[in-house]
Prior knowledge:
Mean pLDDT of chain B: 84
Oligomer: heterodimer
Largest interface: A-B, 105 and 74 residues
Amino acid sequence: MKERKGLGFRKTADAIASFVKALGAEAPRRALLCTFDFHPDRFETVLLPELSRRGRWFRTLVLADASAIQKNGALASRGEAPTYELAPVRLDGPGVFHPKLLLLQAGRRVLVGVGSANLTPGGLGGNLELMLFEDNRSADGRALAGSAVAFLEALGREPRIALTASAHRFIARLIASLPRARGGPLLHSLYEPLLDQIRRTKPPGVRRAIVVSPWHSSSASPHGIEPAVLTAVTRALGARPVVHTEGVRDGALHRGPDLGKGTSVRVLDARAVADDGGESREVQDDASSVAAVRRPATLHAKAYVAVARRGGVLWFGSANCTIPALQARASHTGNVELLVRVELDARALVRLEADLDEMFVTSDGILGPTTKRRIPRARGIVLAATSSGWTTSPVLTLDLASKGRTTRRLTIARTARGPGAVTLTVPAGRSALRLDAAITSRLLGAKEAPPVLWERLAEGAVPFPVSIATAPEAGGAEATLEDLLDELAGRIPPAIEASRRRRRPGEGSEDGAGDDAPDDEDDRETELLTKTKHQGELDRIAMRVELLRRRLARASRPSAELCAHYARVLDGLPLPSHQRRILIEHLDSRGAR
Amino acid sequence: MTRVLRGALPSWVEADPLRARAVDALGLQRSADAIADVLVPGLSVATTRARYFSMLVWARRACRGQADERRIHRLEVALAAREGKLHGRVASADGEGGAGDKGEDEERCAYIGSRKLGGWAGDRPPADPRTEAYRIPVWRAYRAPMQRLGLLDASYCLTGDGEALARRFAKACGRLDASGRSLLPASACLSELTYGEARLIADVLGIWPKGKLAEADPSSRAHRYHLERELHRRFGRDWWLTKVLGAYERVREHAPSYTRAALREAAVWERLSVGLQAVFLLWLSPRFSQREVRSLLAAARAQRRAPALPFGRIEIDETAALAAIRSVRRALELRDRLAPRGGLPHCDTEVFDLGAALAGTAPLDEVLEQLATRHLAAKGDDAWITSTRGKPQLARDADDKWQLPAVATLHGYRLAAFGSILDDLGRAWR
């Protein structure tokens, strides 16, 4: 194989695996993944095992666009008793949740992955995607992690964006334990259009520009180039871009979209992508080669380059060349998007351009009109459900997309059609609804809690995911502290552990999760907890606060923000105020040592 | 804080290996897997040779502390090269390439990825197993089943049974070089399984135990035991997938054992899934125009009386529509009989609705659109087609190697792998 001059090729699963192997020893271990489209089957087969190998189990939350996962059948491939939480994100009004971000935390170590790839078969290598993975050992990695945390904090605060309560709690825990940096290299569209930020951060003396983005004709789609936006991009970058996009091969012709006079269009030459993609692009020599290998090279990467006298600046990420992605802010009518700003020196620019030259050819024909692809708005009032476990009688809580001003009626069922539907009344002002045991029993019909339920609407039905919360709702003070301790020690929550064991009775798990031998600290903790088992509740709580303090002092070298976060958690415990104060003082006075 | 990254560069996303296996066009594999988990839990379609269990535990023992995949790979290739030397041009893993006039042993020594080693002439194994032999070690295919059988623990360390099996392999092979620098001896050949090894493997699998395992025993061993007993009782040693499915399709018991129920359920699911797959492939086939496809399907729907169809794959030709509709109708008949009694617990009921629409009177365009929708949902952006409406457009194929399958095939339910292992063990027993 000839030596490649361009950018490297890397598997997403490999990036995760090497982080988990090298830096995943420390707890708490958390994984947050943002995607537009979501394909549960491929995620559960390819990525999720990497987040549970080597006995290093990550609490995993997937944020996906609510309308994308309501698509017909998208959730059907979700496995039974999933060990991760899937939380749909819905924007109030137009716009979609479109960022592609992966953030793994193992104690102080963080891996950030950002780019264009969704958690779908295409995003995991079927499409031509650009991704960057950096851990926080390097200055670039720290900057990226800091701005990713700042983005998540802003996401949780944006009133137009509906998240589940558990997702809010998970994000709060995550950002409390990590440093954040406003104004870092990660640009988001929450408060300011991305194009304005590109204009502000472009290098001086731009000589030429490059745009890489797929092509579709509809302005309602989050994908694709809109000719009208190109004018604005030209102004922002300071030069008319050469557009690299999708085309159709028609005999000897490569047909591309008509993007106006004077715009040079290059289209993806799929053959070039497949010919030289690295070792794993060979036909495999194992049993799987029985099935034919197929790689449709569909362009899904999005990048904007301003080339100056020496080098240039690259912005790449999730934002297509469309109005909702580039010219609107998510707090108004736009999409939630992310771009990363990378300074390219002359060599890096050569590498990028070598790839573009190799993979794209000049368009020598015009595409005919294409069908408009509109993304339907998310329907229904339920966002997701959380379950206390995968049993026949769980406690189910429904997270609603908004607080209604009036009383609402809601019908849910295990299936889209047929008998077994349960109708509920949602009082005004409620954003969550806990189902009582009788309703749960009618809904589940003596079967185990499913990974997907359906909301029946006047016309049709829409599915919503059911998960065990990655950050459970504060129950009693003892349970809350227990969960925090479990997380800090890297232990699997009991509800998930129980389902894992039940699914594979008497057999070792393939992924080796949960098999790590308890360390000395774990042993001491267990011993202390056992000692207080038959003591009063306050003693048990005090012991857990002490263990929390020890864990914080030992594992994470707690920052002021982290101590403040746990102090807030203690302040929210259902205890008399003087007891809370004593516990907070105990945590605070010695936690920073 | 810097506002720009200075040293970092993004990379293109490389395809994950599962893309090569993504042939389940309509998302029907999940139900088949659930049934296979009842029949043959713990094994996989790739675990076809019993002696790999003993060879791989020995290779794992040679690594001592931690499983060293590269070393195990070298040892595997040291065996593969010996097989190549012994048996000349061995058959490829998928049965192609043929063994010419070699005997049964030679053919059965087909080695995953051994195509490059057929007739190996060197006295030493290839220096770089990844490039000169095969890239993915056999260890990957066997390690999870070995964990489930209790030969390895969760961190790939040998269990007591694993240690014992490794010792028996070493004893059977005599002097063994665990460095991977020389070929393994002829006594390590996959067809030279000894009675001692076979006894232990049969024990961990749960087959041929002393005494009986209770029907209510929920362990995986009991599942495999009951399957072996059931197939042996009914067919002796002479069985294969289509024969088994054909026989159990006709089982009319009200309360069969879980093994018999699962075999019957597999038969029903295969009737349905092979029919739906055939219609989907026919619709996409470039051999037929859309008008021809609709006309073939309409004619097949109109033909109400048709003789019973034997089990088997369906070739996508002029007869495919008729075979597919007959297959789906048979599945619906069986569904109507079994579903009210809870006889199809692992089958996706929505697929039967799709089958009913296809075999019934629903407009063909709607049915085909439903098939396309199901395909798009199952494959996501890895779909074979680009739209659900009108004439289906095949997604662009980047490397021109992929071709639309020309046959609708049956799911295997791991029965072939199980049968092959039983065969290996039986030969050692004799």
